[in-house]
Amino acid sequence: MALIGHRIAHGGELFTQSVIITDEVIDNIRRVSPLAPLHNYANLSGIDAARHLFPGVRQVAVFDTSFHQTLAPEAYLYGLPWEYFSSLGVRRYGFHGTSHRYVSRRAYELLDLDEKNSGLIVAHLGNGASICAVRNGQSVDTSMGMTPLEGLMMGTRSGDVDFGAMAWIAKETGQTLSDLERVVNKESGLLGISGLSSDLRILEKAWHEGHERARLAIKTFVHRIARHIAGHAASLHRLDGIIFTGGIGEIQY
């Protein structure tokens, strides 16, 4: 074995491209891991295991955020006080970049498009889901934000939610910030609405058997996807294709 590659969910502003893994790289990945707690810590465990099993083999970290480093400030800034961005790095980073990059490149080949004069919408739909607008080969907008929570409704993640709604829930129920982080990351989305499962295959079967909340979960999921696709198209000068990928995007529909 000559090389081992690791997909890392979040590179923050520290990583703009793939890098050879060193102790310093691992420390920096750990620094940004609170921004993607469901993913980065598991990624670090994979690196540790590979280092233990293959001590002499070089390892490379490929970051899901790096493809979106081409976002313009108007696409990555939040409407928050400037100090949160300048001091804390609070901004939109985007995710699934490895998928969005590969799928858009493959689409250029299959559709015989000129990469330098093209517009694509890529919909990565799985248990995690995101939309990306790719203009002339570069990411110019994407649905996920500072963390993989923003944007589309997903398997267990809520996607876009009015912060005011979460503040009201906290006041009414006495739940802590940690409680609500768990709710929006692990208890929401398809699972939260259906009360049944985060697996679309199970929900489709339940829908056909008359499970009303399974039907509602799927229809809400699809509505959010359509709305984000239409919104992301506004970032393009032309629309040559809408590409679906991921476990749901490629197989389910």
Automatic annotation (TrEMBL):
It catalyses: acetate + ATP = acetyl phosphate + ADP. Its EC number is 2.7.2.1. GO terms for molecular function: acetate kinase activity; ATP binding; magnesium ion binding. The record marks 96, 157 as: Transition state stabilizer. Its cofactor is Mg(2+); Mn(2+). The keyword Magnesium applies. HAMAP family: Acetate_kinase (MF_00020). The lineage of its organism: Bacteria, Pseudomonadati, Pseudomonadota, Gammaproteobacteria, Enterobacterales. One of its GO terms (biological process) is acetate metabolic process. The active site is at residue 64. It is found in: Cytoplasm. GO terms for cellular component: cytosol. Substrate binds at residue 7. Homodimer. Pfam families: Acetate_kinase. Gene3D superfamilies: 3.30.420.40. The keyword Mitochondrion does not apply. It is an enzyme of class 2 (transferase). Pathway: Metabolic intermediate biosynthesis; acetyl-CoA biosynthesis; acetyl-CoA from acetate: step 1/2. Catalyzes the formation of acetyl phosphate from acetate and ATP. Can also catalyze the reverse reaction. ATP binds at residues 124-128, 199-201. Belongs to the acetokinase family. This is Acetate kinase. Mg(2+). Can also accept Mn(2+). It comes from Salmonella enterica subsp. arizonae. Keywords: ATP-binding, Cytoplasm, Kinase, Magnesium, Metal-binding, Nucleotide-binding, Transferase.
